[in-house]
Write a structure and sequence with these properties.
mainly alpha; 16 helices; globular
Length: 379
C-alpha cells in the first residue's frame, strides 16, 4: 500500500514538472504586458510570502494530515496554472505568484515528510533521488514538446500546462494518508527553539544552502553567460539545456553510490567537486571544458538534494515532521535571500566576480559541513 503512495507521488512530481512554457517563461510574461521590474516585484512578494507561510503550513499539515494538505495544495497548484494562462496584467500575474507561494510553502516539507513516512525511513535517499529525477524528467519532456510541436505558439504553452496539473490533482485524491499514533504535539515555538539551539544542525542547513544555491545559480542563470564568454553559438543553448536535464537524471545511480561510499563521503565529494568546478570555470576559456564543468555542477545538485532530504529527515524523532521540515525550509529560504542578493550584486559587476563568490560559498559550505558532522542532535 505504501509503495502505491510512493509511485503516485512519483507520477504527481512528473506531471508537475511538465511546464511547457519553462524555457520561455520570461518571454511569455513579457508578451503578456508586464515588465522585468514588475517581475522582480512579483518575485520579491513570492519570497516574502514563502518565508511567512512556511511554518504555519507545516503546523497545519501535522494537524490535518499529509493527504488533506497535498489535496489543498495541488488543487491550488492547478488553479494557479489557469490564472497564469488568463493573466494579461500585473495584478493577475501577482495573483498567480501568490497562489504559488501558498502552494510551495504548503508542499515544502509535506511531500518530503510524506515520502519519508511511506518508506519508513528505509532507502529514503533512493526515494528522494527518484522523486527529484522525475521532476527533472517532466521538465525535460515539457521542453521537448515545446521545441518540437509548440514552438512559436507561446499562448498554447501556457494552455497545455493546465492539463498535467489537473491530472496531478486527480492523482492526489488516490493517496492514502499516513496514520500516526496519538502523540502530544509540541508547540511550534518549542520546535523552533530546539532547532535554533542546535548549532550543528544550523551549520548543516547553512552549508547545504551555500552549495545548493551556488549550483542552482550556475545551472540556471550563469551558465548562459559562461557559454557566451567562450563563444558558444546561441543556437546550441536549447540542446545544452536539454542535455543538462538528461545529465540531471544521474540521481538514478545515487543509491548505488551511497551503498558503496556512504553519505559522508558523498557529501564531501559534492563540496570538493563543486570547489574544483568553480575554479576551473573561473580560469578556463575552453568551450568544451565549460560544458563539462557545468555538467558536473548539475550532477552535484541532483546528488546533493536527495542526500540532504534524507539526512534532515533522519534527525527528526518527534511526530511533528512537517512542522520541523518547514522550520528547516524557513531557515534555508531566509539564507537564500542573502545568497541571491549576493550573486545578483557580483554578477552585475562581472562573471568572474560571481565565480569567485561561488568558490567562496562552496568552500565555506564544506568547512561548515565538516564542523556540523561532529554532532547533530535529534529533534
Amino acid at each position: 500500500m505504501k509503495n502505491k503512495n510512493i509511485y503516485l507521488m512519483y507520477m504527481i512530481c512528473l506531471l508537475q514538472g511538465m511546464v511547457f512554457y519553462a524555457s520561455i517563461a520570461t518571454t511569455y510574461r513579457l508578451s503578456r504586458g508586464i515588465s522585468l521590474l514588475q517581475m522582480g516585484i512579483i518575485e520579491a512578494v513570492f519570497t516574502l510570502m514563502m518565508v511567512i507561510l512556511e511554518i504555519p503550513w507545516g503546523y497545519i499539515c501535522d494537524r490535518i494530515g499529509y493527504k488533506k494538505t497535498l489535496i489543498i495544495c495541488n488543487g491550488l497548484y492547478f488553479i494557479s496554472k489557469i490564472v497564469f494562462y488568463f493573466a494579461f496584467d500585473f495584478k493577475m500575474f501577482l495573483l498567480e505568484r501568490i497562489l504559488l507561494a501558498i502552494v510551495s510553502s504548503g508542499i515544502s516539507g509535506c511531500d518530503i515528510g510524506y515520502l519519508y513516512e511511506c518508506c519508513d525511513g528505509k532507502n529514503s535517499t533512493k526515494v528522494f533521488a527518484y522523486y527529484n529525477m522525475l521532476g527533472t524528467f517532466g521538465l525535460l519532456a515539457g521542453s521537448i514538446v515545446f521545441s518540437l510541436y509548440i514552438r512559436d505558439n507561446i499562448d498554447l504553452s501556457g494552455y497545455l500546462t493546465i492539463f498535467p496539473y489537473l491530472l496531478a490533482f486527480v492523482l492526489t485524491l488516490f493517496l492514502d494518508d499516513i496514520k500516526k499514533e496519538k502523540t502530544v504535539h509540541i508547540p511550534v515555538l518549542g520546535h523552533l527553539a530546539k532547532v535554533i539551539n542546535d548549532k550543528s544542525l544550523l551549520l548543516f542547513l547553512l552549508a547545504s544552502t551555500l552549495l545548493c544555491e551556488t549550483t542552482h545559480e550556475l545551472n540556471t542563470f550563469l551558465n548562459q553567460i559562461l557559454y557566451r564568454r567562450v563563444n558558444i553559438n546561441i543556437k546550441w543553448f536549447g540542446i545544452l539545456y536539454a542535455s543538462m536535464m538528461l545529465i540531471g537524471l544521474s540521481g538514478l545511480f545515487l543509491e548505488r553510490f551511497e551503498k558503496h561510499f556512504g553519505k559522508d563521503k558523498l557529501f564531501n565529494a559534492c563540496y570538493l567537486i563543486g570547489i574544483v568546478s568553480c575554479f576551473i570555470l573561473f580560469i578556463t576559456r575552453n568551450k568544451y571544458i565549460v560544458i563539462i564543468m557545468i555538467a558536473l555542477t548539475v550532477i552535484i545538485e541532483n546528488m546533493y538534494i536527495p542526500l540532504k532530504h534524507s539526512k534532515l529527515n533522519e534527525q527528526i524523532e518527534e511526530s511533528d515532521r512537517a512542522t520541523i521540515l518547514s522550520i528547516y525550509s524557513l531557515i534555508t529560504n531566509m539564507l537564500t535571500i542573502i545568497t541571491s542578493l549576493a550573486f545578483g550584486y557580483y554578477s552585475n559587476i562581472s562573471i568572474d566576480n560571481a565565480l569567485l563568490l561561488s568558490m567562496i560559498f562552496v568552500f565555506t559550505g564544506w568547512i561548515l559541513y565538516k564542523i556540523s558532522t561532529k554532532n547533530i542532535s535529534k529533534i
